[in-house]
Automatic annotation (TrEMBL):
It comes from the Eukaryota. This is Uncharacterized protein. Residues 135-154 are annotated as: Disordered.
Length: 186
């Protein structure tokens, strides 16, 4: 899933790192034709995979191959720690093969739950756009989003937290007034 987008993201990160080297480390890379690698591209190459690791998830908690490999790698690393060693079959008989399969199962389950919860929250935040036709939904979204409004961060004192980011019963007149528009009753 998402292979083309992931490949595109990896190329984009490499291209951006090269651009940053051109802009901020021109004395190292020169005009870019000599094959010299600058500090940004070097730092990107020092990542675990040698580049950014694009993680793509689906609506049903499926993940791309890179995310699956990341989970496996993290489970192996965790299994080697003291905590992981304490979960060996000598202590926990829930899975054969040591701490690694236990960690991998827990990580996959936790990630699946996190993805499902995030998808549900995303859908709940957008429920006020539900309209009988796609055209009406699009028009509602356009009418209620100002391009010039500064949206406060959820971490700012006095503002809604992530679980309060939806507005029940649509936007209503108050939201339209706040966005600088008045369309009468909905």
């Amino acid at each position: 899933m998402g292979t083309g987008v992931c490949t595109q993201a990896v190329r984009s990160y490499r291209r951006r790192a090269a651009g940053l080297d051109q802009k901020y480390a021109q004395e190292v890379v020169g005009d870019g034709t000599n094959g010299q690698v600058g500090p940004f591209e070097t730092a990107l190459g020092e990542f675990y995979t040698g580049n950014a690791l694009p993680v793509a998830v689906g609506a049903f908690s499926e993940v791309n191959e890179d995310a699956s490999k990341l989970i496996t790698r993290l489970a192996r690393l965790t299994a080697k720690t003291d905590f992981g060693k304490s979960m060996s079959p000598l202590v926990s008989h829930s899975r054969k093969g040591g701490a690694f399969p236990i960690m991998q199962s827990q990580f996959r389950r936790a990630l699946g739950c996190l993805i499902a919860r995030g998808q549900a929250q995303h859908l709940l935040k957008r429920r006020h756009y539900a309209r009988p036709t796609a055209r009406e939904a699009y028009q509602t979204a356009e009418d209620n989003h100002s391009r010039h409004r500064n949206r406060p961060r959820a971490s700012m004192s006095g503002y809604a937290r992530w679980w309060q980011n939806f507005i029940p019963e649509g936007y209503g007149l108050y939201q339209q007034w706040r966005n600088g528009k008045n369309f009468g009753s909905l």
